[in-house]
Amino acid sequence: MPNIPYRWSVYCQRYTSITQLLATLEQQQLPAMKKKLIDLLKIAPFTYYQNAKTRVKRAKSKRLIRSYLKQADRPMLNIGTGVNVLKGWLNTDLYPQKPEVVYLDASIKFPFEDNTFDHIYSEHIFEHLYFEDSCNMLAECYRVLKPNGVMRLALPHVGFLQGLYNNQEDKVNKAYIEFAKKYFIPEQTKVVGDSDHYNIYVINNFYRNWGHQVIHSYETLKELVEKFQFQQVERKEVGESDLADLQGLDGNGRAEYPPEFYKVQTLIIEARKI
Fold first, then answer.
1. pTM of the full structure
2. Strand pairing category for 76-79 and 117-123
3. Which of 63, 70, 175, 238 is exposed most, by the fewest CB atoms within 10 A?
């Protein structure tokens, strides 16, 4: 949002009509001021409000970041915290829900120096990013990781959806379909009635709901992560890691569905910066 200098305030007091003000600026050959006014008019009040809120969050976050990095022996970054605030980590989110959580937009440059963090963790956030924004996140994670640091990503995987399609009679898949019918697609369930094909509705809902943008397989995620110089990409089980710092992180605070559903739908990888 551009600043409005004193000269602007004089003009705005004198002319109550935007059209009249634009015409006057044209007559007085003040194209720069006219262009700035037009740019201002393009910004909706809600956008201005959001921009103001973002500036406040960033100012507060700078203080939290400085405080954390000053006292942390092993700095670790949690991207997309939600309610899963991890002890000993710098917890960040685009929409911080707790006062100790730092504002961070994963689609732009991170507010950290190169080689800052020992480890990075992100749980069920990556799939919500547009593809180009997910690429920015990977590039920034690599930049701010220390050499030999590890990034751990947890996200839904397409193999889960393939299981719903090919094997809907599996015990867990069947339970998930029934759960989704009740809580995620009740309107469709009401219309369709008895059907052997609810798995198709559930799969469609999973793709489009909750702001999902890209659902990866292990192969596509590994391929993409390696494009950003990460090495030793390995698939991990929920809650398990060879590194003590990365054990037991997944699924905490996710009360929207039973733990067995989290496990069956979640793909986890760890990748190292060499």
1. 0.79
2. parallel
3. 70
